[in-house]
Amino acid sequence: MKNVALITGASSGIGKELAHIHASKKGDLVLVARREEELMSLKTELEKAYNVSVEVFVCDLMRPHSAKEVFEFIQSKNIQVEVLMNNAGLGGYGNFNERELSKELDMIQLNIVTLTELTHLILPQMVERKSGKILNTASTAGFMPGPLQSVYFATKAFVVSFSQGIAFELQDKGITVTALCPGPVKTGFESAAGMSGSGLFEKSASASSTAIKGYKAMEKGKLIVITDGSLKFAINFALPFAPRKMILKMIYKMQHIK
Ligand SMILES: NC(=O)c1ccc[n+]([C@@H]2O[C@H](COP(=O)([O-])OP(=O)(O)OC[C@H]3O[C@@H](n4cnc5c(N)ncnc54)[C@H](OP(=O)(O)O)[C@@H]3O)[C@@H](O)[C@H]2O)c1
User: CB count, 10 Å around CB of 144?
Assistant: First the structure.
């Protein structure tokens, strides 16, 4: 396989679109997620449309050390990963004290632990080759606290911070790290997070436009890409100066489902 991108959460939404873009550039792929049928039909579609090779690895990335299973799979196939896209993730709506703790911990496992572990396992290949690109799907949620999705917002703050930290450490090693930070996007995320009916997704971007912006930023080796223009302005020029309690009230109201 050549110019291989490993994409987690490739069975739908932003990850699926990222797979299309990479394949359209004649890159081979390793697709990872839980839904086998979706992954297999994407494999067939991409191989036919772009004449690329696609491997599928069905895996629940919420399980501890599932990242190791992904890594063992690519090792068994002798695959060198040129592009790592840590995209799998999910949210969860509700007051923290009323939500099941196991769901919060599963979210942390998927959004933070597996992402960190997989990055750590794959980086040595990239360091040895002195080349590689990492695209971590974070969120604009990573720049603010998020009442009614407190754990989700905190996981994305981790992704934003972690991505920038390792980007600096790796800058002389031929490896770039980009945090993709979308605002609301029309995908399976809304219902998976239990947020159907929230006004937050009324003006959502498409998964395709989000993936295009993310992929381009990754190609350029940018640190961060905020794909929603008005949120970019708010994050850079309004939120840093607004009173914390006002921000919390605003985000609570935006997320609240009546
Ligand atoms: N949509 C938004 O508004 C929005 C905004 C900002 C950031 N994001 C981030 O964008 C990323 C992609 O989400 P999306 O919007 O494209 O939503 P999506 O359509 O629901 O896609 C989520 C992907 O993650 C995979 N996934 C979820 N749980 C998994 C698990 N336990 N093991 C393996 N894979 C798992 C899903 O695959 P399976 O179900 O097949 O496992 C799916 O491929 C996430 O990190 C999300 O936090 C989304």
Answer: 20
Q: What is the pLDDT of residues 101-155, one digit of tens each?
A: 999 999 999 999 999 999 999 999 999 999 999 999 999 999 999 999 999 999 9
pTM of the predicted model, to two decimals? 0.98
Contact 68, 117 (CB under 8 A): yes
- Residue 132 backbone class (left: φ over 0; alpha: ψ -120 to 50; beta: rest): left
Q: How far is the CA of 87 from the centre of ligand 1 (A)?
A: 7
**4-255, what's its fold?**
Rossmann fold (3.40.50)
Q: In what order do the strands lie in the sheet with 29-33?
A: 54-58, 29-33, 4-8, 81-86, 132-137, 175-181, 224-226
> Mind giving me the DSSP string for 1-56?
--SEEEEES-SSHHHHHHHHHHHHTT--EEEEES-HHHHHHHHHHHHHHH---EEE
Residue whose structure tokens are 């995320």: 189
Name residue 179's beta-bridge partners: 136, 224
Ligand 1 atom at shortest distance from the alpha carbon of 63: 31
**Tokens linked to 142:** 């990573």
Which tokens in the block code for residue 179?
Answer: 């945090």
Domain boundaries, the chain: 4-255
> Is 61 near ligand 1, meaning CB less than 6 Å away?
yes
pLDDT per position as a tens digit, 61-102: 999 999 999 999 999 999 999 999 999 999 999 999 999 999
Ligand 1 lined by 34 (C-beta under 6 Å): yes
